[in-house]
Amino acid sequence: MIVAEAKPFDEIKEMVNGYRKVLVLGCGSCVTVCMSGGQKEAELLAAALRIARGIERREATVDAKTILRQCDEEFVRQVRDELSSYDAVLSMACGAGVQGMNEWLRNVPVLPAMNTRFIGLCEGQGKWVEVCAACGDCVLGVTGGICPVTSCPKGILNGPCGGNKKGRCEVSPDVPCAWVLIYERMKERGKLEEFKKERAAKDWSKRQRPGRYTHRP
Amino acid sequence: MTLREKLNAGRFVVTAEIGPPKGTDVGRLMEHIELLRGKVDAANVTDNQSAVMRVCSLAISVLALRNGLEPILQMTCRDRNRIGLQSDLLGAHVLGIRNVLCMTGDYVSSGDHKDAKPVYDIESVQLLRIVERLNSGRDMAGNELAGGTDFYQGAVVTPETDYLEPQLVKFEKKVNAGARFFQTQAIFDIEAFSSFMSFARTFPVKVLAGIVVLKSVGMANYMNRNVPGIRVPEDLIEELRSAGRENALDRGIDIAARHIRQLKEKNLCDGVHIMAIGIEEKVPLIMERAGLL
Amino acid sequence: MRPIIVPPCQAACPINTDVRGYVSAIARGDAEEALRVIRRVNPLPSVCGRICTRRCETACRRAQVDAPVAIRALKRYAADLAIGQSFFTRPLSSYPEKVAIVGSGPSGLVAAHDLALLGYSVTLFEARPVLGGLLSEGIPKYRLPKEIVQREIGAIVSLGIEVKTGVRFGKEVSLDGLLWDFDAVFIAVGSGKGIVPQCDGVDLSGVFSGVDFLKEVDRGDRQAPGRRVVVIGGGHTAIDAARTCIRLGVSEVTVVYRRSLEEMPAGKEEVLRAEEEGVRFVYCAAPIRFIGKTRVERVRFARTALGEPEESGRRRPVPLEGSEFDLEADAVILAIGYAPDAEEIKEAGLKVGERGTIVVMDETGATDITGVFAAGDVVTGPMSVVDAMASGRKAAGAIHRYFRRIPDNAFDRLVSLRPLETSVTAAIQKSERQEPSLLPREQRTTSFDEVESALDHEQARREALRCLNCGAGATVDGECAACLNCVRVCPFGIPAMGAQTVEIDVAQCQACGICAAECPACAIHLKDDARYPMRPGVDRVLEKAREESPDIVVTGFYCCFRHPLGPPVERHALSWIPVLCLGRLRESDILYPFEVGAEGILLVSCRDEECRFGRGVRLLAERVERVKTILDDTGIGGSRLSVVAGDDECDRFIRGIERLGINPVRTGKRVAA
Questions:
Q1: pLDDT tens across B83-117, in order?
Q2: Which of B83, B85, B107, B157 should we substitute to test contact with A (largest number of A Cβ atoms within 10 Å)?
Q3: Cα separation of B51 and B53, whole Å?
Q4: Contact C186, C111 (CB under 8 A)
Q5: Which residues pair with B101 in a beta bridge?
Q6: Residue C416 belongs to a domain
Q7: Of C530, C553, C570, which marks where a domain is finished?
């Protein structure tokens, strides 16, 4: 799932400064699941903007709404007329949603309220962790299902650096060393021989941007 | 004799470390070179150590070489991709550098440009593989070189880490990838080190034990708390404490010298790598007390 | 018939009172709303609040945790605040049909009430000089004071019901006559004739019917029937007669029942009260002969054993041979049941059933004579007051449908929620049941003063807060993004992933509201919140507060579980909103008062470890931090929001707000934080 987080409030406020009538548009998919951009957050941001604008004695029409997905034209089309009555749409979707909306809405600027962060997993209520770097060259099959490209800050493919202390990562001591986890997992599964194999440098050409995927090339 | 020749000849070698300056003033650096020349067998030139931006290790290595101190060029994977690394390696070789120490490198967050984008296109094992490749006359992509290299490449290992098993696997990978010599992270427990060495001795590589001079009780405690892979035993800390604040450094030098002597007498390893951070000028004194001068 | 799932208490109640509705209103301190909920279905709430057989409490799921909610006492608490006050008025337009109701007991009264409110002309016929049937003459006043009955009846009659007392069915009026004058007749004359056992000596003087005895006492015609009285029976009438005897000064009263205490219809609590007052009980004994010359001197009993269960489900008592024993008595009160007066009914031309009851076609109470309906004891034999009320309600509905030609299939079928799972009951905080206080024993044996008093305000609030709000919990709508956040936060582990969306089992949900407040899709709704939406509540409170305090208004949200008696402190500038656990407040709820101009917001919650729902307080703290950040960002300032504990802190906070001044949203000036 894509995890995004709201931009700092001041940045958002500044961004919509020039627009009178603003719609905060939540996205009902990934960002709802990660709690940062669903209807609840859209309502809260809209209220905060109304308050801030009220204090500055500015036009305070800031509404909130959510659609199921902002990254597909068909969903956007259903609300195009309604959205067109606003001077700007403040999208709480990921970068894909914001770009799609701009493409399909044309006459209304769609501004990003979020910083898109990563592909992640929930690690307890209200907490997400990045687990996939979308590197295009998956190594999970040989690393016990734990991604060193993502979970090791240095993306090392051949085992831990000398920096782990008590199994924690040198770079972020609050997270475990990915390679310690991989080692434990592979030991548990009796796959240490696999662990000992040298891994060649990654083929980063798979990560050439913009990435493209065609289902039936 | 070069470092490679001395090690191959079975001589007990001593290496030290010199850090490139932050800025173009190399005055103090030159003093250190002067101090170490003729005493140590070679000196590591650090590569933007701790991710703090400094003069590149290649330039300072050349400076050392020209001034009669054999350099070991440290290369990390943090700041250059595979193209940059290979290109710099070739350049170093052209300028006469033969020793290279391959490392992954500290993360940018520990340095003074924390918002930099770290590269890590490849890492230590793969870099060793590249050097091996260049030595064979080809680049990483398999292209033939107009003149290959003849590097003596080394790597690092942390024998006193609190989680040794995967570290040993990585040691083996580095050996297989072409590492000829290893410099270890600081060791303080000779007994533990000797058990590591009985493992390392099964591979055809030279091992230089890392020696860090303890300057005070505070420093020892700080390292125990914060520096990964370093474990200063309680009896050494007690020894420093008993010497009193004034004489702690002197006692630290004694401890370092004692350890070196023990390592050499017991023939535990092939040399030592002295990391005298901030007290580079004390290196000759340590060597003297260790009976190496 | 549509099945409608309701809380167990509501399903068990013969008139399907929205118990949860009024109990939660009492919990919030809104007794008026509680009374409104009660009166919607019950025109005799103060009566029921005293003598109802409370099947609701038997069904109450709180019993799975500790003890059932004291529902009857709560009803009395709310009802007594406005006895006899009219809540509803006759509709402006009315139907032309006229209805005669014969008998003014609970069944007739409810039918009269309902039909009057539907817009029919109702005339109520009563043989006695006072209305109320058993309520006025029969249930002793130490349980049901007569002025209470009369005031509630007065409110019913004030709906425009014509009353004709002293008119006996079959004597002063005949069914034919009524059918001539009215479009429909509802017969609810009850069952006033005591059943007499078939044994020797029953005709001796000093042997009489319990129903008659109680009626006579209520009419003031009765003195102590003797020195040693034996009461035979195990129902309310038996206990009532025994306790009445005590109050009349009888020195020795023994109740003899043919089954054991377990089977006794009167219930253990009644027995306990009687024992406290000095009544003796003999179980598993049946009379076989009354002995005496002209007046009874003693009664011979046989011990009984309990045999096969009979139709009622209770085991049949079988006399044991050779177990006879005698009890001396100078008076015997028979309270083994009563039946309708079959003669009256036969004379009217109605079909008479086995026990002298009127035979009706179905639940609606329609008899074989068109336009004539019957219900209550006269149809079923003795039933409880609330059952009789329910029968009157059904009959009224049937008469309305008969007039308006509405098909008869529209009854909703109420189905109770399932019992709580043990995993849920284990997570529910225990809480002691509040009991009404009782008159001291010595006063009970010498007077007819009411024995049980009402709960006081604090008791009522505390007791109402024990209600588990069954079925008022969370529902999930189609906006659910299946994020599983509710699954992760629920303190009771109830939400679970369904095929597409999360499902919350209405039977288990504890209605804490935590999941709804955390739902990022706003897809979870609480039934309670639909009834009492937060924002209009805040608007109302703020508007009122602004009138009184034009400069500074502080909105306070307080947890009802922590402060059951109402706001923790009363201050001029402070306006309060009660919340059942602040864990249900979402960030936008906390922010909203600022948006509409409040100067400050105070939150008074429980201590973390005391939270009724375990983690409500902790989650609230996280949300408050978030809102403070938003307040700082927007320019209002986070220091205008605070979670506080004591009075001192409230005052300090208000002083702080006074220093900060008017909410910049109102003035338009950004105030430095």
A1: 999 999 999 999 999 999 999 999 999 999 999 99
A2: B107
A3: 6
A4: yes
A5: B74, B154
A6: no
A7: C530
3-state helix, strand, coil in chain B (%, to 5): 45, 15, 40
Same domain, C238 and C256: yes
**Bridge pairing between strands C524-526 and C474-476:** antiparallel
Q: Is residue C409 part of a domain?
A: no
Residue C339: band (very low, low, confident or very high) from pLDDT cuts 50, 70, 90: confident
Contact C585, C517 (CB under 8 A): yes
Band (C1; pLDDT cuts 50, 70, 90)? low
Q: Are A12 and A45 in contact (CB under 8 A)?
A: yes
Spans of all domains in chain A: 2-118, 133-207
Compute the count of residue pairs across chains A and B with CB atoms less than 8 Å apart.
Answer: 96
In a domain, C363, yes or no: yes
- Please name the CATH architecture into which domain A2-118 falls: 3-Layer(aba) Sandwich (3.40)
Residue C364 sits in a domain whose CATH number is 3.50.50.60
- Residues with Cβ within 8 Å of C517's Cβ and at least 6 positions away in sequence, in order, are C583, C584, C585, C586, C589, C619, C623
Level-2 CATH architecture, domain B3-289: Alpha-Beta Barrel (3.20)
Q: Is B214 a residue whose pLDDT tops 70?
A: yes
Would residue C582 count as lying in a domain? yes
Contacts of B190 (CB under 8 A, 6+ apart): B259, B262, B263, B266, B268
Instruction: Report the residue from A38, A54, A122 with minimal CB separation from C520.
Output: A38
In a shared domain, residues C586 and C511? no
Q: Which of C336, C362, C394 is the last residue of a domain?
A: C336
Residues C227-270 pLDDT 10s: 999 999 999 999 999 999 999 999 999 999 999 998 888 888 89
CB C334 within 8 A of CB C358: no
Q: In the prediction, which pLDDT does C316 show? A: 84
B229 close contact with A: CB closer than 8 A: yes
Q: What span, in angstroms and rounded, lies between the C-alpha atoms of C289 and C282?
A: 17
Prediction ipTM score: 0.92
- Domain containing C495 equals 474-530
Q: Is the pLDDT of residue B28 over 70?
A: yes
- Compare all CA atoms of chain C with the CA of A68 and give the residue at the minimum distance: C479
Q: Where are the domains of chain B?
A: 3-289
